[in-house]
Amino acid sequence: MEEYKIDLTVNGEKISTTAKAEESLLKFLRRNGFTEVKCGCEKGECGTCTVILNEKAVKSCITLALQANHKEVWTVKGMEKFELGRKLQKSFVNYGAIQCGFCTPGMIITAKNYLDQNPIPNREEIKKAISGNLCRCTGYKKIVDAIYAVAVENQRSK
Amino acid sequence: MSLFKYISPKTKDEVLEILQKEKSNACIVAGCSNVLPNIRDKEIKAKVLIDITNIEQLKGIYQKEDKIFLGPLTTINELIYSDITSKEYKVLTQAAQEFADPLVRNTATIGGNLVTASPAADIAIPLLTLDALIKIESTRDKREVKLKDFFVGPGETILQDDEMIVGIEFEQSDVNKNGYFIKIGQRKAMAISIATVAVNLEVRQNKINQIRIAAGSVAPTPVRLTGAESFLKNKEINDKLVEEAIDRVREEVKPISDIRASEEYRRYISGLLFKRAFKKLADSSIHQFTN
Ligand SMILES: Cc1cc2nc3c(=O)[nH]c(=O)nc-3n(C[C@H](O)[C@H](O)[C@H](O)COP(=O)(O)OP(=O)(O)OC[C@H]3O[C@@H](n4cnc5c(N)ncnc54)[C@H](O)[C@@H]3O)c2cc1C
Ligand code: FES
Ligand code: FES
Fold first, then answer.
1. How far is the centre of ligand 1, averaged over its atoms, from the C-alpha of B147 (Å)?
2. What is the pTM of this model?
3. What digits encode the pLDDT tens for the residues B87-98?
4. Nearest-CA residue for atom 2 of ligand 3
5. Looking at the domain B56-171, which fold is it?
6. Does B40 contact A at CB distance below 8 Å?
7. How close is the Cα of A81 to the center of ligand 1, in Å?
8. In chain B, which end has fewer C-beta atoms inside a 10 angstrom radius, N or C?
9. What are the pLDDT digits (tens) for B236-250?
């Protein structure tokens, strides 16, 4: 069967191409050069493939590419266009919240999307917010520290 | 080359037409959290994917006269953030908060959760104690079925291959506003339930006027525990009654042993979860009454 036409924007840039019916958004993005979206489990469990789809953080391995038709997608590379994204990137580096780095693209996306909705969370709320993103290296503490530092900064600049 | 055909209709009627033509050759796609893993595992025989996520008629949570209506495309996160469910029907919100993780909750839908018919379908449990009605349509028929009669076996429901869920409804009654849900999993997030229990209760003058009890992961399908319910109905609440009811719950569930827990543990924990939920509700109802 044929491929289907798809128009979407990724990180603010318009893309017009085709996708297979059953293709996941994850495979589609990687095939089109957005390899910053990482493939861990392809089962919806690890969160490395997290992207923002129309303002919501979703796992792209359990979303059809064609479900992003006419929608807006943001990957970690687009995060530097936002002040909050830049703050999170810096804070992850400051706190050593990156070891192998495989979970980082998903973590930053989840954290950015969460802080957009709830700019001043406490540590417990942050832990819940990142509960769909697995990290095999850091033990999470440094990741929570990094996100919390941005929350504290948000509070100060309020 | 695509392995499947993809259609994204704008209306419910278009979906019904396609289902009528394609029958079991078509597979509805909502949040896709079950469908995509199943496609990958080659478990889907259908050749046509009908993506229903662009159909506005199937979305939203509203009050309709004395009922609450939930579109089948309501996502798990919408149950948490909607004013209607989060203020008055906490049993639903509590179940939603224990579901997967905040990312999966952004896309997974309640219609998909019910049709999956997993014994561990978390949203089925509070919908059972709310005595929800499932609205089903095909081009030949419209019917309404109580959720307790919807499940047939693991992964199996009464839905025919030309039918879809178009809505879920429950009453805005006192008993529905007083509910409590508890889930036991292997960890705090991203856990498939080992056991879940929901209770909805209405107490009048210290007597149980209405009670509904449901449990998940302790039988081939999500179940109502009607035996324990009828045992409790119209009885005065005291500690002895609760202890007896716990035994009834443990007798009525039909769990199995699997990699997550043993049959014995599931039986034991079902009784305990029932007790915790019941006490929570009874304490607050009696307190309200004496005030
Ligand atoms: C990582 C992960 C964690 C999960 N955690 C949980 C959990 O904690 N608790 C839990 O209960 N489940 C969990 N699930 C299972 C799944 O996410 C849920 O069952 C979810 O609600 C399915 O909804 P969906 O919209 O994604 O369904 P889809 O995958 O789109 O569809 C599922 C099935 O329902 C059918 N369908 C969908 N809508 C309709 C309709 N309106 N009419 C007729 N048929 C329809 C589809 O054809 C398909 O057969 C998890 C899944 C993953 C991948
Ligand atoms: S690759 Fe998507 S959740 Fe693991
Ligand atoms: S830094 Fe290695 S998985 Fe998180």
1. 16
2. 0.96
3. 999 999 999 999
4. A100
5. 3.30.465
6. yes
7. 34
8. C
9. 999 999 999 999 999
Say if residue A7's pLDDT is above 90: yes
3-state secondary structure labels for all residues of chain A: CCCEEEEEEECCEEEEEEECCCCEHHHHHHHCCCCCCCCCCCCCCCCCCEEEECCEEEEHHHCEHHHHCCCEEECHHHHHHCHHHHHHHHHHHHCCCCCCCCCHHHHHHHHHHHHHHCCCCCHHHHHHHCCCCCCCCCCCHHHHHHHHHHHHHHHHCC
CA B242 to centroid of chain Cα atoms: 25
A20 interaction partners in chain B (CB closer than 8 Å) = 1-4
* Percentage with pLDDT > 90 across chain A: 97
Interface probe for A, chosen from B36, B78, B97, B113 (most Cβ of A below 10 Å), is: B36
Give B287's pLDDT tier (boundaries 50, 70, 90).
Answer: low
Which whole number is the average pLDDT over B115-119? 96
Record: fold of A3-77: Ubiquitin-like (UB roll) (3.10.20)
Using the beta-carbon criterion (under 8 Å), do B188 and A20 form an inter-chain contact?
A: no
Provide the CATH number for the domain formed by B5-51 in this structure. Answer: 3.30.43.10
Rounded-to-integer distance, Cα A59 and Cα B140, Å: 37
Amino acid A125: pLDDT: 97
pLDDT in tens, B182-195: 999 888 777 888 99
Q: Which two tokens stand for residue A30?
A: 């990687």
Which CATH number is correct for B178-290, 3.30.70.260, 3.40.50.10380, 3.40.50.150, 3.30.390.50?
A: 3.30.390.50
Query: Residues of A with CB below 8 A from B189's CB?
Result: 128, 131-132
Average pLDDT value over all residues in chain A: 97
Compute the count of residue pairs across chains A and B with CB atoms less than 8 Å apart. Answer: 98
